[in-house]
Every structure is written in structure tokens, then in C-alpha cells.
Amino acid sequence: MSASKFRVLPRSYAQTEGIQRSSLNTAILVTLFVLPGMLIFLMFFLYPIGQSAVFSLYEWDGLGPLTDFVGFANYERLLDHKIFHMAVQHSLTLMVLSLVIQLPLSLGLALIVGRGNLPGRRIFRAILFIPYVFSEVVTAIIWTYVLHPDADGLLNTLVRSVVPGFTSAGWLGNPDTVIFVIFIVITWKYFGFHMILYMAGLQAVPDDLEDAARVDGASELNVLRYVTLPLLGSTIRLTVYLSILGTFQQFVLIWVIRQGGPGNGSQVIATYLYKFGILGFHLGYGSAVAVLLSITMLIFSVVYQRFVMRRDYATDASKERIR
Amino acid sequence: MTAQRGLSLTLLLRYTILILVCVVMMAPVATAFLGSIRTTGEFLSSPFGLPQSGIRWENYTNILNGTGFWRSLVNSLLITAGVTFLNITCASMLALVFSRIRFTGRNLLFNLLSLGLLVPVVVAILPIFIQLRRLGLIGNLLGVVLPLAAFGLPGSTVILRGFFMNIPSELEDAAYIDGCTTLGFFYHILLPLSRPALMAVAVIQVINSWNDYFVSLLVLLPDPNQWPLPLGIQQFQGQYGTDWAPIMAYVTLLIIPAIVFYMFTEKYIVTGLTGGELKG
């Protein structure tokens, strides 16, 4: 599996192996060093996820013993539940919006901030990135104020000062549009992360290649189109991957801002799982949601890494050979 | 001549766009700060105004004189320290084994760990809640620390492993010839040489655990004495409703350390997020 090779830039490294020491010593050392980490990882991550596959086959409030075996009934109910459909649809909406708006925006800003010749570059990078460091709860509270439905919410005040006679809007009050407003908040907080990745990728694009294209008479747009972007390919493929995985992680911002409401308008898969699975004490049902999401993401990850990101690893290997 | 003008025009355009975007990015934060030093009334009538009747320190002193804030601060510090220490210790030991020692089952273990990078952490929340309850860790800070350390383990290990692999094996050979044990090599040579990578990994863990809300919500919600800051501020907001000035003071109290932390660790944050790639 190539998951071990997440990286922004292709890099070559010498595959070094320690010299063989006596096998008993090695065995003891390996055990001592592997045990704590793997134990924590298995007990608090992998094993519970695996267990939820079992829970998902039961009707279970989480308190008594597992007795009420229902087979795949939880899954059937889930696939029939209208609110679950809405949650999936909203998660997919967020995913598509991230791919077509957030990533190009991050890339554009990374190109504008550029590669290090722009005075003030570090300050711009800091300001654009800093929301990433803030906690999601703080972000959600600040934006709750910005989007407050009363006349004195920040956005309402601002719009009124530009558009006279503007009656205050409840930005988060409309079930049909709330997910787009949430998307703006997510973008505000997270696009800096992708921008940083693009900036890292750009540093690895040698500017003599671009200069050569310019000398040959290519316009700036063509340099971008035919030189810079193709060279950024591996970074773009990585950010697409992280963005998709990240979208399905979104919980805290959405939950603190609106708890998935109004009218389930901002319900996504994670908030659905929390609301109907955990708060509603339907732990078997919630497990079914978790299993469905893990399997989907696992398949997506494996397929994406095999077929889309594969060439990035291929470049790695060839580079290694050249050196 | 024209080329130069073209150049400065692009530069002007770049600056205009950047400054505009930065203003939009900073407006919510700036209003939060301005709100925190005024009364709610002043704040709401002019979000960007300055205090009319002197800085209203009460917004801050009310929070700082109460016990809730300090208790949450201590809880947050404990969680952050615990997660970071546990994560770094386990990850560096795993990374050593995965990068330097050959043994049967190594690839299997590493692939198992890598599975953690392929599924969103959110799906683990419900089963982990059940697991923690079975272990009696609900309402215990350890119940937050252990899962958070586990979530970050695959990423930390992969970054450190990459870094360890880049340290030339000649160094290891030389250490052994000089009579160093594997443990000695790890402790006296590998770890000190890897300080930048360790810092990068640690900084990411600090950010994630300091900001954690979801796991704390599941594990610590029933006992206000154990709330970390994210739960504390949410409760505070619920209590004050639309009395924004004190809420914004609390927000500012949480934002300022985040900004200071960023300024001091910028290099490591960037390195950590880009998997150890970017300098500068």
C-alpha cells in the first residue's frame, strides 16, 4: 500500500536499512518499540472501527448487552431515511464546492503570493493561513456573530452600509442555502492549508523552466498553463485527495454553528451520525453510518492512490534510479 | 520600458488582490477584538468603531476573575501536553523500527498503521465512545488523551519515518563501530539529528489537541470541571447568548495565544503540514 508516501513533492531518499544485529536483541527491541504505539493505535482507532461493523448488525441503545440481532436492517433503514439522503447530498455539495472553488482559490492565491520575490510575502502568508490555527469552536462563534440574523450582525451591518434600505437577512436561516454559507466559513478557515501546500509545491518548480518558456515567447498565461501547472501536478492531486477526505471530516464547525439545522439544511454525514446515532442512543444505527462512510472512504482512498496518485510515486522511483 | 511598466502593473495588481483578501480574512477577527473592549451596545451599533468611553476591561476581568476559564485552561494544557508527549514518543519509536530495523511482519504492521491515513477520523468517534465507556474512561482526561494521540499516530510516524530514512546509514555504522547500541544510536544520534522533524510533528499535535472539541464533547461533557477551553467557550457563549462583548473577550483570549504560537512556530507548522518538505 502506498499510503505511506503522502507527500507534497516527489523526493528521493536512499533506502537505508540498519545492519543486522543479533536476532534476539532485535526481537526485544522491536517489541518494546512497537508495542506502545501499536497498542494505542489499535485500541483507540482501528479496533473500534472494526467493531462498529459488528454493532451495526444490532439494534442497540448502547447500554445493555448486544442481544437484538437485526441483520442488515440498520442499513436498510439508513438507505431509506430521507434525512440521511439530505446529509449525503450536503456532504457531496461541500466536496464539489471545495474542489471547484476552494482549491482554485488557494492555488490562485499561492501563485499571487508567489515564490519569494514579493516583499511582505511572509505577512500575507501568515494572515491568509492563521485561521487554520484557530480552534473550530472559536471560528464558529466568530462567524455566528458575523452572520447573526438581527440587524446588528456584522454582515447585515456591512451590507446595509453599501445597500441602503437593505432589510436584514438571516444568513443561516434558510434550509436551502445554509450549506453554502457554511461552505464560506469552511473556506475561510481551511483554504490557507491548501495554499501552504501549493506554495510548497511551487518552490520545487524551477523558475529557469518558466524563464525558458518566456524567452521562447510564451505568454504568462501559457507559461502557467503549460509549464507551472503541469509541474504542480503531484501537489494538485494530493490536495484534491486531502480536500475530499477533509470534507467528510467536517463536524465541529457545522455542529457549533447550527447543529445541522435549520430543517436539516446543514446536516452532513458526520453530524447525522452524531445526532441520530449518539445523541439518539441508536448506537447500532450510528455504527451502520460509520461503517458505510469508512468503506466508501477506504475504497475511494485505495482507488485514488492506485490510479491517480500512482504516477507521483512512479516519478519518485525513476528519480531514485537516476541518482 | 514597457516591460518594466507591465511588471509594476502586475505587482500592483498582485498587491491589490492580496490586500483585499487579507482585509476580508481579518475583518471577523478584528471585529471580535474591537467588540471585546467595548460594551455590547457600542459594538453592535458600529462593528469597526473604537471604544467611546474608555476600554472596557470588565469584559476581560469578569472572565479572568472567574474560576471556569482557569480550570479550562489547565485542562487544555494537560490534554495538549499528554497527547503531544504520548504521540511523539510512540511515533518516534515506531518510526525508528519502520525505517531502520528489518524484521518479519514489518510491512504488515506499517500497512496496518497506514490504514489510519485512509479513513476520516469522524467514523471512529462512535465506536471509540463505546470503547472508552467499557474501559471506564468517560469523564477522565485520559479518555481524551489516548484517542487523540492515536488519531495523530499514523501521520506523525510517516513523517518521522521519512526523516529517519534520510539520515545516512554510514552514521549508524560508525556509531555501531564505536560501540553504540541500537538504543544508544536512537537516543544519542537519531533523535537529536531529527529535532526539526520532531518539532514539526509536535507542533501539529499541539494544534490538534489544543483545539479538540469532538472527543472532549463525548468524553467530558457531563463534568464542567474537566472541560477544556473549546467546551468552556461554547458553554460561555450559550450562557451569554447575544451579549456579544464578553463572548468576544473570551474569543480574543483564545485567539491571541494561537497567533503568538503561530508566530513562534511558523516554520515548523509549515514543515509539519507539508510532510516535512518546505523551508522558508
Protein topology:
The complex is a heterodimer of chains A (323) and B (280).
Chain A: H1 23-55, H2 73-80, H3 82-113, H4 121-129, H5 136-146, H6 154-162, H7 178-203, H8 207-215, H9 220-231, H10 233-249, H11 252-258, H12 269-279, H13 283-308, H14 310-322
Helix pairs in contact in A: 1-13, 3-7, 3-10, 3-12, 5-11, 7-10, 8-9, 12-13
Chain B: H1 2-36, H2 40-45, H3 58-65, H4 68-100, H5 106-115, H6 125-134, H7 142-165, H8 169-177, H9 182-193, H10 195-211, H11 214-220, H12 229-240, H13 244-273
Structural summary, described in words:
The complex is a heterodimer of chains A (323) and B (280). Chain A starts with 22 loop residues before the first helix and ends with a helix. Chain A is built from 14 helices and no strands. Chain A has helices at 23-55, 73-80, 82-113, 121-129, 136-146, 154-162, 178-203, 207-215, 220-231, 233-249, 252-258, 269-279, 283-308, 310-322. Chain A has one domain (83-322): MetI-like fold, CATH 1.10.3720. With 323 residues, chain A is mainly alpha-helical. With 280 residues, chain B is mainly alpha-helical. Chain B has two domains: 2-56, no CATH class; 66-273, MetI-like fold, CATH 1.10.3720. The longest helix of chain B has 35 residues, at 2-36. Chain B is globular and about 75 Å long. Chains A and B meet through helix 1, helix 3, helix 4, helix 5 and helix 6 of A and helix 1, helix 4, helix 5, helix 6 and helix 7 of B.
